[in-house]
Amino acid sequence: METTHFSSSLLEDKNEADASIQNKETTYFYRKKVDGANQETERNKGEASKIEVRGLNLKIKNKVILNDINVKIPRNKITIILGPSGCGKTTLMKSMNRLTELYPEMNVKGEIFIDGEEILNSRRDVTEIRKQMGLLSQRPYPLPMSIYKNVAYGLKISGRLKKRFLDKRVEHYLRQASLWNEVKDRLRDPASGLSIGQQQRLCLARGLAVDPDIILADEPTSALDPISSQEIEKKFVELKNNYTIVMVTHILRQAARIADYVVFMYLGEVIEQGPANEFFNNPKTEITKAYLKGSIN
Amino acid sequence: MISLFSIQRMIPGRVKADRFNRTWMFAWLLVIVVLPLAIAFGLIWKSSLLFEDHSLIEMIVSSEWKTLSGKFGFLPFIISSLWVTFLALIFAGPVCLFSAIYLTFYAKAIVLKMMQPVIDILAGIPSVIYGVWGVVAIVPIVSKYVAPVFGVQTSGYTILTGAVVLAVMIIPFILNIIIEILNTIPKELSEASLSLGAGKWYTVKQVVLRKAFPGVVSAMGLGLSRAFGETIAVLMVVGNVVHIPKGIFQPGYPLPALIANNYGEMMSIPQYDSALMFSALLLLTIVLVFNLVSRFMIIRYEEKFR
């Protein structure tokens, strides 16, 4: 982890990646823009954020994993959930698409709104809710089938589709994940034969194929080599125009490079959240300051 | 300096100990490899007397079993064994697969925890008890209730009865292996599928079972081998009539029952003794073939999908 000369070098990276948010004025502008975008979308009037978590508590037996989480995640931005290992980042993300239900020992209470619609206690079909979000996990987990079928998997769930249409979609999403040129001659080969970096991009393509508005990424680069990591990061910066991206990481440098908005967690609580620029330049709490300096890991 | 010196002196001793340990561990391994080979060779040697005036093909294809006139046709026993075993697997296989899926993917963790001792107890019941249970419970049920439905009259001592008892016996065995296999499949894989909008059953079908397929096949293969060799419980309920069974409501006479019923009794006829040894050899060979086939299926599958 970075320990010294953090603020200067990190912010340089950050500025290279995205120069749009420079100071408080732009922050204000960006808030306004988000509001404006919302007015255009009919179904969520007055809703400032894409995802809003209200009073989320999560316990395993009597151990508190998440304590009263309140988070607002802006639309079409990269939001980084930052924090040391074991602070509940991944769990918070998993509750956003209700994968917490796979762990019966978890006791979840609270509300999560997506486009103003409550999903955590909703009676709506959970698979429909999950389809709104593409998921990238720490290590790529390609499904045990061919490259083609991995991408077509989500498409096929929604119903029988013509092969020509399917072919086109698969190609489209593989291109979006910058993988097409590498795999176009071996679409029928098992996905497990790809390199790990390629697998992660395949997982991205697979996630995009169900046409979500949100991408949830749980330390998507932690198993990758630096070059593959960079590709994923670059992809995210490209994709944020069309998607709301939520990414968990404990790599400060990565957060600084691509974040528009930061949610900082520590020991199951959200300590601080705000636009990246503000968070890195002007941290409000002592814990954040210590973390940014590198004295907490 | 002194300490460095003593370390240098210690090293050869450690190397020696290491080498010694390796040797005796290898020796144990050798026991495991040599023992089955020795058994196989022993059986071949003991059954060689039979080959003096009988050809291998003739014995396997013939169904005439007249020990006093020296006619040894093993077909009835082989067919009976295959009937009982495969029928048992047909009963036990789906039960195991679906309950394992339920326990690992649908049930709460506590249910699996509660089931584990139940499964272990089932696995630990001596087979003779299963046999008694078969005689007391399954035989009358088959003769009074099941057979009449199909318009058949029977004593209840049938292939079907044997298969049911056998199925109950191998269920805990196969179930345990499948649960273990399903637990090794990373949860993230199911999460990936679910996050793509797949339902739970679709995920199980398309992802989990695909991934688990080789393991499930080998679990079934092991169950099959075990069922094929199971003796006492089957012998007690299957009827033991030497003929080629033509349906599940007829009695049968599996290979292990043949050996257990007659060994020690007919030692005075050398050819008979040799014939029983040969049936043991057949049993061993068929079990070996089951194992090889399931292994082959796994390898083929892995080449295709991994």
Helix content of chain A: 40-55%
Overall spatial form of chain B:
globular
Mean pLDDT over all positions of chain B: 86
The CA-CA distance between the termini of chain B, in Å, is 55 Å
Helix content of chain B: over 70%
Q: Please give the order of strands in the largest beta sheet of chain B.
A: 1-2
The major pleated sheet of chain A works out as: 6 strands, mixed
What is the CATH class of the largest domain in chain B? Mainly Alpha
Largest sheet descriptor of chain B: 2 strands, antiparallel
* Quaternary structure annotation: heterodimer
Name some characteristics of this structure:
heterodimer, A: 297 residues, alpha/beta, globular, disordered N terminus, B: mainly alpha, MetI-like fold, 11 helices
Short synopsis of the structure:
The complex is a heterodimer of chains A (297) and B (306). Chain A is of the alpha/beta class. Chain A contains twelve helices and ten strands.
Task: Describe it.
Chain A is of the alpha/beta class and 297 residues long. Chain A contains twelve helices and ten strands. Chain A has a six-stranded mixed β-sheet, with helices on both faces. A four-stranded antiparallel β-sheet of chain A has the order 2-1-4-5, with helices on one face. In chain A, strand 1 (51-60) and strand 2 (63-73) form a beta hairpin. Chain B folds into two domains: 4-46; 56-304, MetI-like (MetI-like fold, Orthogonal Bundle), CATH 1.10.3720. Chain B has eleven helices and two strands. Chain B has a two-stranded antiparallel sheet with strand order 1-2. The mean pLDDT of chain B is 86. At the A-B interface, helix 4, strand 6, helix 5 and helix 8 of A face helix 7 and helix 8 of B.
